[in-house]
Amino acid sequence: MTKSPASGLSLGIDIGGSKTHGILLDADGARLAESVRPTLTGADGVVATAIAVVTECLGQARDGVVSIGIGIPGQVDPATGVVRTAVNLGISELDLGERLTAALGLPVTIDNDVKAAALGAANHLGVADGDLAYLNFGTGVAAAAVVRGRLVRGHGNLAGEIGHIPVDPAGDRCHCGQRGCLEVLAGGGRIAARLAALGTGLTLPTLVQAAEAGDPGAVAEADRLCRGIALAVQLVVLTQGSERVVLGGGVIHTAPGLVPRVQDVLIARAAESEFLASLHLADRITVIPADYPVAAIGAALVGLRRTRARHLAPIG
Amino acid sequence: MTKSPASGLSLGIDIGGSKTHGILLDADGARLAESVRPTLTGADGVVATAIAVVTECLGQARDGVVSIGIGIPGQVDPATGVVRTAVNLGISELDLGERLTAALGLPVTIDNDVKAAALGAANHLGVADGDLAYLNFGTGVAAAAVVRGRLVRGHGNLAGEIGHIPVDPAGDRCHCGQRGCLEVLAGGGRIAARLAALGTGLTLPTLVQAAEAGDPGAVAEADRLCRGIALAVQLVVLTQGSERVVLGGGVIHTAPGLVPRVQDVLIARAAESEFLASLHLADRITVIPADYPVAAIGAALVGLRRTRARHLAPIG
Predict the structure, then answer these.
(1) How is domain A131-242+250-287 classified at the architecture level of CATH?
(2) Cα of A54 vs its chain's centroid, Å
(3) Mean pLDDT by 10 residues, chain B (316 residues)
(4) How far apart are alpha carbons B36 and B53 in whole angstroms?
(5) Residue B246 φ/ψ region, left for φ over 0, alpha for ψ in the -120 to 50 degree band, beta for the rest
(6) Residue B106 contacts A, CB cutoff 8 Å
(7) Contact A240 B241 (CB under 8 A)
(8) How far is A133 from chain B, CA to nearest CA, in Å?
(9) Of B147, B234, B275, Cβ closest to residue A147
(10) Residue extents of the structural domains in chain B
(11) Which of A66, A199, B188, B191 is most buried by a 10 A CB count?
């Protein structure tokens, strides 16, 4: 028997490079259950991890579940449920939607994790019909925009790959082959490599504090990172006119003091440009709380929207 | 008596820094009349020019006209018809919608000229419900995106101000106060100033030819310009996932050979980056024909859409 999507439970799963996070929500969005497991990599590992997290979240609640949504890195086609080039997960191509639907006996909707997180961010801010940009600073840098309550997907679901926009022709080479990409400045992978190369024991959790104490290596790295985040904020606001810019991802949550420093950079830049000052970029920023599972909640919303759309669609 | 918008004539006016272009379209989009006049600047000059162009276009057809749409540079609020900071027109603030509606006795809808042009570009390509970005390289650089047939306006109609995204921290100072903005690379105002400073008589119409002949000043300027246009294309595709990128504006139409050279730059960049190669950026480019009045046609569409929305809206 099919439950009405308005009254049922929804499940959201965020498959990340290190861990997979599942939550079970009731019809009012309250969290009923939660499960976190280390992500096994490779196609079979990812499928097994997702099934284990789903099973753990569902417990005895299976009968009430109307939708399962999954957020996963990589190029994701929500129409087919196929995931491509999720490098950190060891996946070149995986028909995740079909494999999970077959294993679980429930309809599963797949989306890109950052796109799912943008819906989660809109939900968190209570602006489900609004305009916002979500910027994710994890190993890499990516964005997703919600316009009038809908995700901007772009042709081939490409929208949001801002990490590979070059912002410095003299910058370091990016793994994508270009120079000076935003991801070189503000991607967690690059930052960790540079901090390790310093050999001073400096890490992301102590970066801003060390920069404030005047450590030259920390100052240089913090300035580069803050400039990258500030540029990403400016870029999405000027391109898409986003009223709010929500920051999330491991880099944001691991470096205490980072976001106020980014806001200081934006304010200093605005002092040099009346145009920038008129944008009030620092004021547009919201940080997603570290304990709010934004991508998992967004994934639940992705699944719920798809299921509702199916229920509303004419039959046959 | 109000004509049905489905059967009536629509008028579109593109108010530019040097000339104002009006067109009268029938319900099938065929051009019935056209008028071009030099733009008088200042608030009164702009209003007088618009009225003269409207009157000339209308001729005896006034009774059949259901909508008038105006595209104008600057910050435009289509809801109120107020235009702000249209610097090249000598306007700081002008209630253009109200003044024209009062003078003409017909409802007038105002929009930003580049946003109007994006609708004109969608119409030209026959993808009225599609996704595209329109990039305008005039005195400045600006963009507008159409997503699922609708303009992306952004909060405060800010979307598309990509000319002031910095792409080179070592670049020249922009009039906005920042360094290395896209507009510094590819805005017609800056290009003209640099060419004049060379003192070699080089102009935009001969730039690409002179660069191909090996003139060092021309090579440097053409490279900078092509890099700026190429970056703008990449930026809108990676941010919004635009399937097609339509190029227009005075710089594009005044410099023969420019767009193939931009495509060469994109192809050369793709050779250094598998990621860029996968985007096929050069293939996404379309140039609006120089004799297609894209902003005036788009302005007519803006007016027509607004009038249709009013007819469809519930009364009271």
Answers:
(1) 2-Layer Sandwich (3.30)
(2) 20
(3) 63 94 93 95 96 91 87 94 89 95 92 97 86 95 92 92 97 95 96 96 97 97 98 97 96 97 98 94 97 96 88 56
(4) 7
(5) beta
(6) no
(7) no
(8) 11
(9) B147
(10) 9-117+292-312, 131-242+250-287
(11) B191
